[in-house]
Amino acid sequence: ATFKVKIHAVREPQLPELDDEFAKDVSEFDTFEEYKNSVREKLLKAATERSDNDFHSALMNAALENMTAVVPEGMVMEKTDEFLRNYAESMGIGGNVSRADLVKMLGMTEDAFNQMMRPTSIRQVQADLLLDAIVKAENIVASDEDKEEVYKQIEADYGENAEKVKEMIDEELMTRDLVRRKAASVIYDTAVKTEPKAEAEAKAEDASESAEEENKD
User: Fold this and answer.
1) Where is the composition biased (Basic and acidic residues) (predicted)?
2) Structural element, H or E, at residue 89
3) I need a labelling partner for 33 at 20 to 30 A (CA). Which of 7, 67, 113, 196 fits?
4) Mean pLDDT confidence for 139-148
5) Nearest to 164, CA basis, from 152, 154, 174
6) Are 178 and 51 in contact (CB under 8 A)?
7) Band of the pLDDT at 73, cuts 50, 70, 90?
8) 83 touches 120 (CB < 8 A)
């Protein structure tokens, strides 16, 4: 087959000048230097958070590899159901929908769903058991201040709907989540991070410079 293509025009993209006027147009800053520093700080924060998340995941995986605890089958199924409920809530599906119907919405049978989620559920139960053991060994508790921080965050996130959200919170589950987070911090805080902060800063600097160079070309 033969195709004919007619080119009406070839235009070169006009990139804005990276100056103070550009900074004023795209941000709340008055100078391009201030804007560039702000972008760099955001990139550094994002790079550091990614680095910390990877570091925390690696630590947790290493800790779980050393576990010898037997995972009760009932806990695995409970965790699988929890994942399914969380999915339903994220999709705005009411709690009156049956498990079978929820799984059917995913285009799967219950057996297929259980098998698919089994490795993840086992891993999460292992993590819960590990954290609960640390909570017990370290006598970790959730203080009133910890709970108040949760409520403050809810108010910041939900505004006028905050009170309704608070009423839906199961305080026992919230307390369990808080102490498990503290237990996870015990693991993170006692480990030595080998990747220096300078590397995250270098990544942010490279990203900032690359963006600036692209605008110059």
Assistant:
1) 194-206
2) helix 73-90
3) 196
4) 92
5) 154
6) no
7) very high
8) yes
pLDDT digits 0-9 by tens, 82-125 = 988 888 877 777 677 888 888 888 888 899 999 999 999 998 89
Residue 44 belongs to what domain range? 16-66
Closest listed residue to residue 197, CA positions, set 46, 30, 48, 28: 48
Q: Are 209 and 15 in contact (CB under 8 A)?
A: no
The contacts found for 118-125 with CB under 8 angstroms, 24 or more apart, are 118/76, 118/80, 120/83, 121/76, 121/77, 121/79, 121/80, 121/83, 122/71, 122/76, 123/64, 124/79, 125/71, 125/72, 125/75, 125/76, 125/79
Region of poorest pLDDT, from 32-36, 70-74, 108-112, 189-193: 189-193
Domains contained in the chain, number: 3
| Start-to-end C-alpha separation, the chain | 38
Nearest to 27 by CA among 14, 46, 42: 42
Instruction: Check pLDDT > 90 for residue 75.
Output: yes
Q: Measured between alpha carbons, how far is residue 181 from residues 105, 124, 132, 158 in Å?
A: 32, 14, 10, 22
How large is the average pLDDT for residues 203-207?
56
Mean pLDDT of 134-158: 90
What's the token pair of residue 18? 């990276």
Total residue length of the chain = 217
